[in-house]
Amino acid sequence: MAAGLVTIAVVPGERFSEAGRSLERILAHRDPSHALTYIDGGSPPLVRQFLEQRAARHRFRLLSTERYVSANEARNLAVAGVRTKYVAFVGNDVLVSPGWLETLLECAESTGAWVVGPVCCRADAASTVCSAGAEAEILSRGGKRVFHERDEHSGRRLADVRPTLRRQPVQQVAFHAALVRRDVFTRLGPLDEGLKSGAEHTDLCLRVRDLGGRVYLEPESLVTHVAPPSFEASDLEYFQLRWSDAWNRSTVERFRKKWGLADDDPGLRALAERLDDHRRLTLEPYRRLLRILGRGPARWVERTLIAPLEQAVNRRRYPPLAGPHAFPAKAA
To answer: How far apart are CA 78 and CA 168, in angstroms?
Structure first.
């Protein structure tokens, strides 16, 4: 593989507590010819200090902001400084594996794909699949435009899924890790920063395919997303903003208008529910306590008492956005 083809761009995922381990893994498996840009969006002081030390030692570009940034804003900040043929986006809570990037590059070079994604697993005992390509399209049904999304691999054991996977075109890949041709942004413009908490990868892949570009899955590349519900105290503020009611509603409405979907679109409703459910992973300690009541009563208490209270608190802390790039100030 020719040197200097790619810039690795690390951006905020949903927490900061895995940033150190994620970066160390990237550095350990990085070819020196690959550039590295790290977008530090308002990380805690100890994390920022670690990043500054590693940037000085390994001579990569570190761009820090004093406020939190959405994932697409961070990706756009990174792309602005990229001069290589490709940019490889990686979340700061993702652990890469040996050869992860080289196999993505080989796939892109040999197929001409505009976007290539790896198999992404969760960091659990069963190595369950987080994403391995998925369906995503805008269909026409009964005179309406309808959003269809389906991921047949998510939640299944990697050992069961991997033998069935092959390098092939897919409709979308996830942004936990994704290789994108730099000239995609010349054709499409920057990533949509109105999509703050979801559908960022879906929007990009839909737009790429609309222009005739191809999106590929490369199953020989493997990464791991270290997902919640385990949190450190320093994770909570950004996590609750990242999946806040305000950002979720703004994101779903932006996606609806952009793709000409109806207010009652079932696919959009499912997306909105997933985003809100993800924020409520912070409720896991309370869920464990509720289990002593039994499954049915516990679900009733959460649905009728705890979830509405959580939503009300989140709305109070993060009110509706006043503008397309409005961000609440970080807590002192």
So the answer is: 28
Exposed/middle/buried for 88, CB within 10 Å: 0-12, 13-18, 19+?
buried
Straight-line distance from the first to the last Cα atom of the chain, in angstroms, rounded to the nearest whole number: 47
pLDDT (tens digit, 9 = 90+) per residue, 162-190?
A: 999 999 999 999 999 999 999 999 999 99
Instruction: Say what the pLDDT of residue 101 is.
Output: 98
Phi-psi region of 4 (alpha: psi -120 to 50; beta: other; left: phi over 0): left
Separation between Cα atoms, residue 170 and residue 5, nearest integer Å: 23
Backbone φ and ψ of 147, nearest 5°: -90, 120
Residue 325 three-state SS: coil
Task: Indicate the CATH number of 6-225 among 3.30.420.10, 3.90.550.10, 3.40.50.720, 3.90.1170.40.
Answer: 3.90.550.10
Q: 41 - beta bridge partners?
A: 65
43-90 tens-digit pLDDT: 999 999 999 999 999 999 999 999 999 999 999 999 999 999 999 999
Residue ranges covered by each domain of the chain? 6-225, 233-317
From 118, 12, 23, select the one nearest 69 (Cα to Cα). 12
At 35, is the pLDDT very low, low, confident or very high (cuts 50, 70, 90)?
very high
Q: For residue 322, what pLDDT is reported? A: 56
